[in-house]
C-alpha cells in the first residue's frame, strides 16, 4: 500500500496532462479523478447565466492546434504541450507570412526555453505560445496555422464536499482547477486540499464544519458566490484559499484576510511572532493573488486568507512551462498538508474561554494543580508533579486569570512565549477539573 | 493687464501703510480695499456688546503721536512708522524726564534696528516704541511726549463672502486684519485669502460652499463666533486659519486641528507622508498661534487647522518693523495660493466612495478597465491601453475593493505610494462606468 | 517625643518576633499592636466556612518545636527562630535516623547561612527548616524530633479602618499580616500602611473615602472578598496592594492593574514618563505577586495595582532568615510613605475637568491670568506677575482648552513636560475665577 507521499505523487501524474480551462472536459476529468480522494458533489451552471457583473462563458473545446512551415514540417503542436495554444483561442486555418504570424505568437524573451501560458477568455483572438528559441529559429516563410476549436453552449463546473463538525459554523478550504499543465500554480492547491480532507476526516472530533470547494479561478469563485455567498456570510467562521503550495525550501506564507478580525489573521500572527519563526505573512491586497480577491470583495468581506509557499509571480516558472513537478516537489505539498493541518487544529483550540470559578483563584492544590508545599528545595518526594513543571503552572494561572470571554487564547498565550499547542494539556486539565469552559468563538466585550 | 503676482504686489502696497488696530478706520479702509478683490459683506457689532466672556472695546482713534527733546527736535513720530505708539495708548501731553520716559519706552535690545509692535488693548497705558539705537542715543533731558488719541463708542467690524457649492456643507477660510504695518504677520493672510477666493470662483464646480471671513484677531473671531458659531457647528465640514504665509524658501506648514477627525488632518498627513515631502505639520496647541485658538476652543471644537509658512515667533521680524515685504516676498504668497488651492481640490476629491458592484470584482474588461489578454509580452497591438498603465489598473482594483464607505480615499491611497491627485482619473472612469459612487463625507462604520 | 522614623522603628521591633501564620494568636497580636496606630476593626470568620472555592482552615497552634541529638544536645529550637518549623506542621514526637530526618529538613544550599521559610497549609506534613551549614554539621545519629502543635477550630482574622472623604467612592490600601519573622516581605507593608493612614488623617480634605485592610495573604483576601467583594465592585475607584516596600537604594515600583483603565495605571505611567524618572513599572501578571492576584481575578477585576520596592523573589533574603531590618531599612519605609502619599495626592487631583466658559478663550486678563501688555521687554513694572511665569500661563491655556470632560489631567499634562503637581496652583486659580470645575472621575465620551 502506498504512503501519503506516493499517493500524492500518483495523483499529480494523473492530473498533470489534462487540458484544463475555465470550462469543459478538462475541468470535469479533473474533478472526477479528485472524487477518488474526496467525495465531491459536482455542480454546473449553464453558459449565458448572469453571475453578478459577469456572464458564464461558452465552453471552449480544443481538438487540434499546430503550425507547419511551407515544407509541411511541424513547428509546434499542442500534442507536445497544451500551453502551445492561447487558451480560449478562436479557430483558424490559414497560410500566413512570418510577419503576420509573429503578431499571434507569445514568448518570454528572458526565459528562452519557456513556453508561456496565455489566455484570452473574454476577447476573441487566435494565437500560439512557444519558446523564444523556437521563435528565433523561424525563417522567412509561409506558415500554415491551424486551430480546431469551438465555443459552444455548455456549463461551468465546480464541486464541493462538506465534512460535518459539532458546530454549524464553517471553515472553507478552496482551490482552483482551471490551468492546463502547470504544477505549482495549478495542481499544488487541489492536491493539498484533497489530502487535507483525508486528514480532517480522521480527527476524533471536529468543532467546525469543513467545506472543501474546487472551482475555476475568478469566474468560478464568482459563480460559486452567486449561489453560496449568502450561506457563507451567515455561517463562515474562517477560510483559506490554497494556491502555489509547492517549492523546495520555501516557507509557508499567509496572505492576511481583508477582514481584520478574521480568526486566521490573529492565529497566524501569533504563530509567526511566538512559535513558528519560518512562516511568513503578507498583507491583504486586491492587486494580485487568487480567489481571495472575490471572497474578500467588499460585498462579502469574508474572513478568508490565503496560503502559499512558492508565491505566484515570484518564481521563474510562474505561468509557463517551467512550472514542473521537479520545481514544485511533492515533498513540499506534504509539508503544506502537515502545516495546514496543525493550523486548523490550533484554530479549533483558539477562541474565548471562561473561568468557571472567577472569584479569586480556585484552590488549585485541591485539583492537584498547584504545589502543596512552598519550599526552596525538596529533598523528599513531592506528592505533586506540578512543582517540576513551572510551565504548566504558569499556563494554568494565566488561563484562569484571563479566561474572561474577552481575551482569546492567542491574547493569553502572547503574554508568555510558549507555543500555542502547549496550552492543550493545561486547557484539558482545567476543563476536567470543572474550572474552565470553552472555547467560544465570539468575544464578549472589549479588553479594558 | 497685470498678472496675479503684480496684482498681489499692488494690493500689498495699498494695504501696508494703513493704521490698523482691532477697531476703527484702519480696519474699515482695509476691508473696503479688499472688497475690490472679493465681494465682502461688512458687519459691525457695537462697543460694549458682550460676546461670551468678553466685551467689545471702544474704538481707538489715533491722530498724532510724537516725542520731542527740550530743543524741540523730534525724536520719533508715528508719521514715520505706525509702530511708534503703543496700540490703544491713552492720550498724553506732558514734559517728562528721561528716567520717567524710559518707563514708557519699548525696544528690542537684541535687534537694535527694530521698532517693536506693542499693544495694550484692555489695560489703560501710554507708551512709545522705538529702536534700541534710538533709545541709546537719548541724553539726559526733558522730553515732550504727545499722544492725541481717543477711545469712543463705535463698532468692531468683520466681513465675509460666501461662494456657494453643490452642498450646504461649508469650508471656512479665515484671516485677520488688525495689525498695523507688518507684512508677513498681517497682510500675507488676507492677500492669500482674497486671491484664493478668485481661484475658487473659477472652478467648474464646487462640492462645498466656501466661506471667507476677515476679522480682527482674538476679539474678532470671538465676536464672529458669538453670531455664527452655531451655524458653523451645524454646517462646517472643514476650515483653515491663514497666517504668516510669506517667507522665501519656507515650506508650507499645517497646524493640525484640535479635532482629530478634522478632514484636513488626515489629508495633510497623507500628503506629507506620501506626496509632498516638503510640507510640514505641527501639533495643535492652544499656547500660541492665531484664531484657531478660538475656533478650536472646547465649546466649538471646529474641524479647523491653520496654515503658515514663515511661522509667527520663528523669524526675526515677528511683531516688529523688520516684518517687511522684502522678507515676506509676494512670490511666497503666490506659492501659498497655489498650494492651498491644490489642497482644497484634493479635499473635494477625498471622502468615502462606494463600489456599486461590490460582490466579487466587476468584469472590468467589459468597461475597457482590464487587460483582455493575459500574456507576458505583447508583440501585436493590444486593444487595451490599460496593459501599459499598471498604475491605473492598481488604482482601479484598490478603489473597487476598498470603496466600502469605511475607508476614505486617503486610507486607500496610503496602501500604495501614488500621489492622491493621480486617483482623479481612475475615480472619474469608474464613475463613468457606473461602478463607483462618491465621494461622501461621512464614514459608515469602522474599519475591522 | 519620637519622630516618624523612630516610631516606625519601634513598631517594627514590637512586631518582628511574633509567630504569625495565616490564622491564630500571632495574627491577633499583630492586629492589636497595629490598633495603636490605626483604629482597626477586627473581624473573624470561623474555620470550616466556605469562601468561594476555598475553606477556612483550622487555627494552627504551635507551642514547642526542636530537634535534639542522641546526647540530648539541641540542634535547633523555634525559640531561636520561628522559621525553624514548617508553618502549619503536624505534631511529632519521635526518634528518627539521620536519613529519615533529612526527608523532613529544608535548607537553601546556595545560601548556607539562611533558614528558609516553608509552609504547608493545606497538606498534612511535619518538617523543620535550618541553614545548610547546620545540615552539613549533622552526623549519623538518632535524633529526637519534637513538635507540639495543634490544629483546632477557630477563626481567620482580618481588620480594616475607613477614613471618610467627600465622596463615597473608595481607595483601598491593603497589606498582609501572615508571615513570621521577616522584615521586607512581611512587616514593610503593614507599617507603611499604618503610617500612610496617619498622613491621610491629617489632610485638610479628602475627595475619596480611604479603606485600609489587613489580612493574611491569599486565603485572607479571598475571605475578605467573599464578604466585601460586591461592596468594592460598586464603590472602588482605585486601590493598591502594599508589599516588600523596603530596600536601601531601591526605587518604588508599580505593578499595573489587570484592569487597563485603573486610575493608577495612567497616573503612574504619566509620572514615570514625565515626572519621576526613578519609579519603575511592571506589567500585571497572575504568575506571582501578592493579593492583587485575588483582587484582579476576572470575577472582580478591581482597579488595583501593587507597590513594591525590593520586589519579592528578587533579593537574596526573600522567604528566609536573611530578610532582616538591616537589609530592609526603616528609612526606605519612610520614603515609601512619602512617595505613596504624593501619589495619593495626585490621584485626588487627577480626573476630568470642565471649562465653564468653553466658547472661545475667556478674557483672562480680567482675572489677572494673562499679561495685559504684549511687549518684547518690560522696562516698567508690570501690573501682572504672570508675564514672568510662562509655565503658569501655559498650564492655564492648556487646561482651558482641554478641560472638556474627555481629556484627563494626565492627558493634558502629557502635552507638556511639567510635573503633574505643578498644575495644582493653576487649577486652584482657575477654580477661584469660576472658569474651571472638577475633577470628575468619569470620562465623558472619547477623544476624537
From TrEMBL, chains A, B, C:
Name this polypeptide is given: DUF4910 domain-containing protein
Ranges for domain DUF4910: 10-349
DUF2172 domain segment(s): 59-150
Segments crossing the lipid bilayer: none
Pfam families (UniProt xref): DUF2172 (PF09940), DUF4910 (PF16254), HTH_47 (PF16221)
All copies of domain UCP01524 winged helix-turn-helix, residue ranges: 353-437
Taxonomic placement: Bacteria, Bacillati, Bacillota, Bacilli, Bacillales
Amino acid at each position: 500500500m502506498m504512503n501519503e507521499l506516493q499517493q500524492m505523487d500518483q495523483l499529480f501524474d494523473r492530473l498533470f496532462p489534462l487540458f484544463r480551462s475555465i470550462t469543459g472536459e478538462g475541468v470535469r476529468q479533473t474533478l472526477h479523478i479528485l472524487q477518488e480522494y474526496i467525495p465531491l458533489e459536482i455542480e454546473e451552471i449553464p453558459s449565458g447565466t448572469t453571475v453578478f457583473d459577469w456572464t458564464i462563458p461558452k465552453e471552449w473545446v480544443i481538438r487540434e492546434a499546430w503550425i507547419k512551415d511551407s515544407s509541411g514540417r511541424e513547428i509546434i503542436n499542442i500534442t507536445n504541450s497544451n500551453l502551445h495554444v492561447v487558451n480560449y483561442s478562436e479557430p483558424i486555418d490559414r497560410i500566413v507570412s512570418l510577419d503576420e504570424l509573429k503578431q499571434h505568437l507569445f514568448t518570454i524573451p528572458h526565459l528562452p526555453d519557456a513556453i508561456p501560458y496565455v489566455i484570452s477568455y473574454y476577447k476573441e483572438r487566435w494565437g500560439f505560445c512557444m519558446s523564444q528559441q523556437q521563435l528565433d529559429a523561424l525563417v522567412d516563410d509561409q506558415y500554415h496555422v491551424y486551430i480546431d476549436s469551438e465555443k459552444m453552449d455548455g456549463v461551468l463546473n465546480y464541486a464541493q464536499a462538506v465534512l460535518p463538525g459539532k458546530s454549524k459554523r464553517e471553515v472553507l478550504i478552496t482551490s482552483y482547477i482551471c490551468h492546463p499543465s502547470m504544477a505549482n500554480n495549478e495542481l499544488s492547491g487541489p492536491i493539498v486540499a484533497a489530502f487535507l480532507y483525508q486528514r480532517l476526516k480522521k480527527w476524533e472530533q471536529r468543532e467546525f464544519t469543513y467545506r472543501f470547494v474546487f472551482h475555476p479561478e475568478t469566474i468560478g469563485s464568482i459563480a460559486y458566490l452567486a449561489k453560496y455567498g449568502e450561506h457563507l456570510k451567515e455561517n463562515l467562521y474562517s477560510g483559506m484559499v490554497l494556491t502555489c503550495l509547492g517549492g523546495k525550501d520555501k516557507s509557508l506564507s499567509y496572505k492576511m484576510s481583508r477582514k481584520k478580525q478574521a480568526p486566521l489573521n490573529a492565529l497566524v500572527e501569533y504563530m509567526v511572532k511566538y512559535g513558528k519563526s519560518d512562516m511568513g505573512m503578507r498583507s491583504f491586497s486586491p492587486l494580485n493573488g487568487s480567489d481571495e480577491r472575490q471572497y474578500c470583495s467588499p460585498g462579502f468581506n469574508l474572513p478568508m486568507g490565503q496560503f502559499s509557499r512558492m508565491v505566484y509571480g515570484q518564481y521563474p516558472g510562474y505561468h509557463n512551462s517551467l512550472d514542473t513537478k521537479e520545481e514544485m516537489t511533492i515533498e513540499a505539498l506534504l509539508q503544506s498538508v502537515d502545516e495546514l493541518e496543525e493550523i486548523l487544529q490550533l484554530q479549533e483550540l483558539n477562541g474565548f474561554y471562561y473561568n468557571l470559578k472567577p472569584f479569586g483563584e480556585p484552590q488549585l492544590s485541591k485539583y492537584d494543580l498547584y504545589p502543596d508545599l512552598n519550599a526552596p528545595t525538596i529533598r523528599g518526594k513531592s506528592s505533586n508533579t506540578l512543582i517540576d513543571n513551572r510551565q504548566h503552572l504558569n499556563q494554568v494561572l494565566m488561563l484562569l486569570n484571563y479566561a474572561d470571554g474577552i481575551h482569546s487564547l492567542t491574547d493569553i498565550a502572547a503574554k508568555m512565549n510558549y507555543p500555542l499547542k502547549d496550552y492543550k494539556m493545561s486547557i484539558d486539565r482545567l476543563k476536567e477539573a470543572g474550572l474552565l469552559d470553552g472555547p467560544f468563538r465570539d468575544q464578549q466585550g472589549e479588553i479594558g
